[in-house]
Amino acid sequence: MIGLSHYLIISGILFAIGLVGVLRRKNLLMLFFATEIMLNAANVAFAAVSNYYHDLTGQMFAFFIIAVAASEVAVGLGLLIVLYKKFGTLDLDDLASMKG
Question: With contact defined as beta carbons under 8 Å apart, do 73 and 36 qualify?
Answer without folding.
Answer: yes
